[in-house]
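Journal club side-thread
Mid-discussion, someone asked how the predicted structure for our own chain would compare to the paper's figures. Pasting it here so we can look after the session.
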Amino acid sequence: MRNEEVVNLKYSDIKLDDKGDLDYLTGVDLKYERKHNFNGDKAKKLVFIPITPELEQLLIELNYKIHIGKDIYLIDSDNKMNRSSVAKAMSHSFTFYRRKAGLPETFSIRHLRKTFLTKLQTQTKLAASAGYQKTVSAIDKHYPDKVAISRRIREQNFRIFEDKQPMKVYLKKQKKGFNFLKPLLVLVGVDGVEPPTLCL
């Protein structure tokens, strides 16, 4: 997801399965909305977000069970900042930690989303079916049910990282800005930044 879409996610966007376990999240494709639904006369284009192990852990840390179904934001819910300001704070946080990690200035926050899409497609071949890309392969078009696709991605044990160890980027929770950045990194596909694993 794009960072502006991430900051607009709410606890009410979390969907549970019949057993009450995490199933998937729904977000809104804001870029599409601005271009094709600026009048708001069409149904919003939803993005179905599969629950990866990293995202599940983040939601647990956020105590999602306490807030499930509530119309409050996942990120910075206690603050009165508008969503645009939260998105900017996340971007600034990314720049700070990118420099700490020694990544080049040309590496932008957009690369995180591209990395996620690359790994999703190479590991599952379901990027297009999940609604992240329009054309990847004709086979993916046989999966029109985005909910089913999100579930299938999870069933295949899709992971952002090959091992279970968090990537080292000198992220510390007590550092200002980390609470803004971590949800974005997880939702777009990176729980830390390490050059060898990223698509620059």
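Post-session note: The chain has a mean pLDDT of 75.
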